[in-house]
Amino acid sequence: MDRERLIDLMGEIIPDEKRILTDQADLYSYSYDASFGFFVPDIVVQPKATEEVAKVMKLANQFEIPVYPRGQGTSLSGGPLPVKGGIVLDLSRWDQNLEIDSEDMVAIVSPGVITGNINAKAMEKGLIYPPDPSSSNIATIGGNLAENAGGPRGLKYGVTKDYVIGLEVVTPEGEIIRTGGRTVKNVTGYDLTKLIVGSEGTLGVITEAILRLYPKPASTQTLMALFDDLVDSGRAISKVLNSGILPAKMEIMDQASIQAVEAYRPLGLPTDVEALILIELDGHPMAIADEMLKVQEVCKEVGVREVKVAATSEEAEKLWRARKLVSPAIVRVKPTKISEDATVPRSKIPAMFQRLKEIKDKYNLDLVVFGHAGDGNLHPNIIADKRNQEEMKRVEMAVEEIFTAAIELGGTLSGEHGIGTMKAPFMEMELGEVGLDMMKRIKQSWDPKNILNPGKIFPEIGQRLVLTDE
Amino acid sequence: MSKTNLAYQETFDCVQCGYCLPACPTYKTMGKETHSPRGRINLVKMAAEGKISLSELEGPIDLCLGCRACETACPTNVQYGKILESAKEVLQEDRRNRMPKRVKMFQSFFFNRVLPSDTVLTMAGAGLSFYQKSGLQKATRKLGILKQFPENIASFEKILPEVAGPIRTKSRVQRAPVQEVPTYSVGFFTGCIMNTMFSSINALSIKLLEAAGCEVKVIKEQTCCGALQNHSGETKITKELAKKNIEAFEKYQFDFVVNSIGGCGAMLVEYDHLLADEPEWAERAKNFARKNVDISVLLSNLPLPFKNEIRKTVTYQPSCHMTNVQKRTNEPLELLKSIPGITYKEIPEKDMCCGSAGIYNIVNYHESMDILDDKMEQVKKVKPEIIVTTNPGCHLQMKLGVEREGQSENVQVVHLVELLAKSCEINV
Lengths: 470, 428
Ligand SMILES: Cc1cc2nc3c(=O)[nH]c(=O)nc-3n(C[C@H](O)[C@H](O)[C@H](O)COP(=O)(O)OP(=O)(O)OC[C@H]3O[C@@H](n4cnc5c(N)ncnc54)[C@H](O)[C@@H]3O)c2cc1C
Ligand code: SF4
Ligand code: SF4
Known about the structure:
The structure holds 2 protein chains of 2 kinds. Chain A is an alpha+beta fold. Chain A contains 15 helices and 18 strands. Chain A has a 7-stranded antiparallel beta sheet, sandwiched between helices. A 5-stranded antiparallel beta sheet of chain A has the order 5-6-10-8-9. In chain A, strand 5 (98-101) and strand 6 (106-109) form a beta hairpin. The longest helix of chain A has 20 residues, at 389-408. Chain B has 4 domains: 3-96, Fumarate Reductase Iron-sulfur Protein, Chain B, domain 2, CATH 1.10.1060.10; 102-159, no CATH class; 166-299, Up-down Bundle (Glutathione S-transferase Yfyf (Class Pi), Chain A, domain 2); 313-423, 3-Layer(aba) Sandwich (Rossmann fold), CATH 3.40.50. In chain B, helix 4 packs across helix 6 (80-98) and helix 14 (235-250) crosses helix 17 (279-291). The site of one iron/sulfur cluster has 14 residues of chain B, from helix 2, helix 3 and helix 5. Chain B: It catalyses: glycolate + A = glyoxylate + AH2; (R)-lactate + A = pyruvate + AH2. Chain B: Keywords: 4Fe-4S, Electron transport, Iron, Iron-sulfur, Metal-binding, Repeat, Transport.
């Protein structure tokens, strides 16, 4: 169908012409996300009602036009990219509903609500929404649900999927369905809620979500432990978790990230240690005071160089600053950051560190590692310059090897950022032929015309990881 | 001037993470990525690569406030200011080639003559206010360029301050007896619009500095800071003005050059960036920039002779120039809180721009009012009796906001210096 006609038909669905974007400048502004790749759509629409989404999907089905749901475009895996042209469905303006029901301990939200706002509003009523991806102040809940986002608190509290109990979804064929409900327990039929969560916008458009909330923990305490030897830090992680303590957060930084932070904003961290671990405990103040002693004991047993316990919340914030500064610190030298999230079983963290070091040396790249130590979700970040094609080729090879390493160690391609376009070529390596085919069959039955977010998750024939503009 | 003058390499520093999105007022009110920092940086890159035309870049760049909140929010230190200035300059050049002659004449008159010229502004200041009766307004009327903004001008007319005329280096400023050994020797930067519209604030500033033990001089050789010209992409004129100011102040041995106008201050502290690639000026510009501080920076470190309690609920609307360019967030606030008697309440999202942004509120009136209405929603939550600002642009905008809410009877808008002076019983 020609573009003019598409715009006309869209005008019949979306009453407010301001929410239909067709200028070049607008189209180019929805052609990227926070990862790689650049694709210009034909039209961008900003729905604000379930009916509007349903009608757009029906139209798209009738004329077989691809549709790409999009939140705030912070995806690190290419999820919302309009790789085959067509319609971008910008859901970020649809943030009108954010209701906290403290009696049922649930939140009911529209898809464009910023995740951090859910937690902030819940806190006003003494509750929390625990999933805390570091992008929670910018990403939408729709994007979080579609990517099954997680964060440091995942160790103790789980990730997005553990908090969704009900959804309203528009199917690729334009039908409106509800999955789950407002109860924590629900075993009526297949669990479509969990199927939609993490489906990266390929099975349906989420138009409303019902989320569980938790009581706010009475207090928190933070500790920083410095290790001369990386292997010791790995042992400390396992031992703490085996001692009956479940920290709210447990984060690790390697020597390269510590050095980067010190070079950027000196915090007085020793740059000759191989690893640093940050631990946050939460719960009743007396309980965590006791646990804190135990954590220190365990660290000493495995040969920690130094332990710092924050006496006040300001001090705690200062300790966490080290972790927060990693991202800005590492892009100081070169601007392009390739942020991976390969995840391994907890016991394999030291082995994974070793593999990463080998990869770094082999390809002669700037590679730093930090991440969620408690659940094995590491963030190896490669720092490069997009303009240097030769370097980017080495990055491509290194990334492939990182994935292979993670899978060989019994882990997974992605702990939280999703597959999108970036990791699609590696799917079969992890899932096997049949595993991937079962997923494809699900996709085909939901979306027979393959119009909802095509080109994601499933590799095209011969598709490879490409980070250069060729 | 061509596309190659766009700050193309700088756009690569943007990793498109989106951290700047919630900080951007135009993203919030205009509701699309095109009017976000990330969007604008990408469009500059696209224009530099020839993928979109300059006219497609124009709208998004013109509608940027230049508040640079995005720069403060950015975790990877993207130089948005530099990218924006480059785009403005390229667009201005492009426009100059297309612009009707009358508009061209007005702009060149306004930027080259009216702002930097003491005489024109002094003439205007002889009992006349800037927009109401100034030569500028007559000039603009004659040229007919403001005809398209009747509503804007009508709105501003209501809120204009009473003009007392500019500071005369000799007659207006009566020196308070300075203590034996002055703490600092200060050169006072008057600013051209400030000195016409808000000359009483300049006068109060000088008296406060003196009361705090400084020796203050207002030198005649100073000229306009160049901020408005720079925001319109007139880099050449800006550089000339900068050089004049540097030269002027170099002749004296001041410890500090002080101003009480957030917008000018922001320009002055960035003279080093402006002249970075002119070898004979770079070092001098750096020295000059280093000496320039907002008045709150000095006063918050010096004892002030407070006399009266001000028993009011007060809030503070920081100027973007102060927060994101001069990066002075604590000093004005601490100073404000040190006034005896006041109850300070913080506006939620106080760091969001009020939408005044130089001449943005005149040129992009409706967009600016959307931003202002958003701001007033937040202001209402703390029910202030006084709104404090540190910049004439914000001052007028907040007054307009109060007026739009029908609150002129109950809410006062003042410059920080005015409140300090009142509490110290210092009068013009
Ligand atoms: C600096 C930075 C830090 C990050 N940190 C983390 C982290 O700690 N943990 C983590 O898990 N992720 C992290 N991310 C990745 C990213 O923020 C998450 O994947 C987030 O969930 C994306 O949300 P979004 O609103 O930006 O969605 P988008 O990026 O716009 O879209 C993401 C995917 O969701 C789909 N989608 C969006 N809305 C809907 C909807 N309503 N219905 C159906 N599908 C939809 C899109 O099609 C796409 O496939 C980070 C990203 C950045 C840039
Ligand atoms: S300068 Fe202000 S208005 Fe412009 S992009 Fe940055 S935050 Fe938005
Ligand atoms: S925060 Fe900085 S790096 Fe991130 S999108 Fe904005 S300008 Fe780019």
